[in-house]
Amino acid sequence: MSETKTLTLARAINEGLRRSLENDPKVLLMGEDIGALGGVFRVTDGLQKDFGEDRVVDTPLAESGILGTAIGLALRGYRPVCEIQFDGFIFPAYDQITTQLAKMGYRSGGKLQVPVVIRVPYGGGIGAVEHHSESPEALFAHTAGLRVVSPSTPQDAFTMIQEAIASPDPVLFFEPKGRYWEKGPVAASGRGEGSTVLDRAQVVRPGTDLTLVAYGPTVATALRVAAAAEQEGRSIEVVDLRSISPLDTATVVESVRRTGRCVVVHEAPTYLGSGAEVAARVTEECFYSLEAPVLRVGGFHTPYPVAKIEHDYLPSLDRVLDAVDRAFAF
Amino acid sequence: MTHHDAADGVSTPPDLPDVAGGPDDAPLLQLVTPAGARVTTPETDAYRERVAHLDAAALRGLYRDMVLTRRFDDEATSLQRQGELGLFAQSKGQEAAQIGSGRALAPQDYVFPSYREHGVSHVRGIDPTARLRLFRGVDHGGWDPTEHNVHLYTLVIGSHALHATGYAMGVQRDGLVGSGDPGRDTAVVTYFGDGATSQGDVNEALVFAAVNNAPVVFFCQNNQWAISEPTTKQSRVPLYRRGGGFGIPSVRVDGNDVLACYAVTAEALERARTGGGPTFVEAFTYRMGAHTTSDDPTKYRSRAQEEYWRRRDPIDRLENLLRAEGAWDDAFAADVAAEADALGERLRDEVRALAAPDPSTMFDHVYATPNAVVEREKAWFADYQQSFEEPAAEVAR
């Protein structure tokens, strides 16, 4: 890939995977239907044709098996990138991820490294059936030893997937499946040619009156909220976390100290979610700068609802604007 | 030793008093009877060839390995009773399965153990004190896996069967299968118990290994009991038959017969290294001790059963063989006993000397890369600890 192209987010990940496969012979992709089909979302489209069945591996339909064998391959010096077909299917592999993958470096006193990347299409809004629209990122962010990230733009997706693969630590790479088809510019200057973005939050829209913190699928929502609020004369800053673990607290705190208000937005249930961590950190560190309590907008403490009513579950433009209003009302 | 031990090697095991596993008509490969006689049937020809090179000195070496492994068990159990270890899981009774299979390995082979593979660890040269760091609570690992080609003990039952399979898939990709160079071609072995065969991970490992023709040996030590649950709670068929459904060659071996265990493992390793794919081995044996030092086997198994297996003690069997073949001498036995005593003494000294690590090390190696969350907490903890220290000047006053 050369110069700048306009790509969908899915295609940007594909290009990033291609680069990693080209640059490092130890990188291999594993998952269900990722070969000839190119994955159910076509994120790995064409890669098996170009890199062969030993590097783009169609696996048995067994998620624990995918993760467990990826750990073994990583111990042998490979860099496996596992695709979990849908968010709700990650749980059969939960044991391998949390009891084995997360702890192996620690357990060995740093003598072992398990550079496994787990790609997870996550989140809702595509009218899917049960187990196909979940946001389990907090479950993994709560486990020490794992890095948990989520890109929100094609450019970040392209860069971050390469950085995730290059990371010596295991990374859960949550892909906002509802944004797979959104297009954006992607500059070829990816890993090694620019600065590291994998665990750096980014101010994606500057503002002075309130900080909206989002990641993955809700960054676009936050930007729409900021545009709408501008009509009412409110200047809203939007911070894209990119990384949920570790959290780039410094960027968020710096922003909230300036704006004095903070609303956190994510699709996952708010109860004990990653927004709670952001809110607690901001409260601890910005207490004397805050004009209002830190508010959260996210999913409810219910299983993901049926598709016909998911728009009421997801943090919509109106629900976020309502929270913004409440923050200004204090 | 007993009248119902059939002379033929591939035999029906005699009536085992209330032995777990239910009706058992599975053939059981045996090369040495409990009385110490060689089994020489046409069915065992191929396996006897695998151990033909083991001369009297080599057999005495196996005996030494087994005695030292048992002493290690006994000392560690005592240390646990004295409060020096938080927990210990014995390998007592399984020495033949572990030493026989372990001695069949080549240096380049890689082992994924469960958590009672002390005999295998011994064979691979892992320091005995290092093996107890985990159980003392000063370390989650204990040794450098890459130094011994032995992965760390894995406590979540069966998880490591998948790691072994993935590692074997890596070996395959490295071109170290079927190259024709026995010094380079590599096999992977994973050890697990009868209870683990019920786990999804072990079954998924069998699937992945079979479809990838991975160079991995699944070495199941059926020691009859998964804590208090007999094998009948895990399976309706003899465990070795599980392999067949996955398309994996499988064999059941007398796990208390060190030569038979050596032979079947050597065969399985050769199959793996030469590109023949995985093998499932069921070593039919017995856990003479408790599951761990927290367990009380008198609550769930009979003394008759324990007595039956005590008569089939793998160490006694090898002694009987050595005596029968004129390879035993009392000076050798005295040497081994002295070496075991020295091991015991060394363990008692060294384990007690294993001090708790500095608390701040809990923050080390959580990640291989700098991590903002961990670094913050480590810094906070350092300040917190510092806050308890009196200024030097005040202490002086």
UniProtKB/TrEMBL annotation, chain A:
Residues 7-182 form the Transketolase-like pyrimidine-binding domain. The keyword Oxidoreductase applies. It comes from the Bacteria. CDD domains: TPP_PYR_E1-PDHc-beta_like. Its cofactor is thiamine diphosphate. Keywords: Oxidoreductase, Thiamine pyrophosphate. InterPro entries: THDP-binding, Transketo_C/PFOR_II, Transketolase-like_Pyr-bd, Transketolase_C. This is Alpha-ketoacid dehydrogenase subunit beta. It comes from Cellulosimicrobium protaetiae. The lineage of its organism: Bacteria, Bacillati, Actinomycetota, Actinomycetes, Micrococcales.
